[in-house]
Structure formats: C-alpha cells, structure tokens
Fold this protein.
Amino acid sequence: MNRIFILLLTGLCTLSAAVADEVPDQATQAAEQPSQPSLSPTQQWLQLQRSGKSASAQAQPYSGEVMDKVHTRYLKSFEKPIPEFFEHEMRTAR
C-alpha cells in the first residue's frame, strides 16, 4: 500500500513539474489568449497527455507474455454474442 502511495505521489510531483515547464508565464499567456479558469490537477494531467509534449522519445513496447495475454483476452471477447439491447436497472439506496 505504501508503495502505491509513493508511486502516486511521485506521479503527481512529476505532473506538477511537467505542467510548470509547459505553462508560459502569465504575461505571455494573457497576451496570447483570453483568461481561462484555473485547471484542476486532473484536467492538467489530461491536457498534458493530449499534448504529448512530455511523452518519452523511446518506444515502450509490451513484452511477449503481456501481448499473448492481451491477444487471448481479445479473442475471448468474441465468445459471447452482442445482445440486441442492454437492460439498465437503477439501484436505489435504502
């Protein structure tokens, strides 16, 4: 659990540093575009992913074992027919 927390915390610190590198100073930003409301950390993260500016220059392929599992799962998805429609049930709290 501690390891997951550290990884999440490290990711948020990396995000903050990457976003800080990508965001121009306020004077330049105000001159280029109308003011935008401040973005939440989640919105900043999504914007950073969309831009691809912090993407690794090196390809990061999956191992053969992982790709075998992915392919097996993909093929298994065809075993069940696609239903004509989906029934939605709303669960209510009591």
The chain has four helices and no strands. The chain has a mean pLDDT of 74.
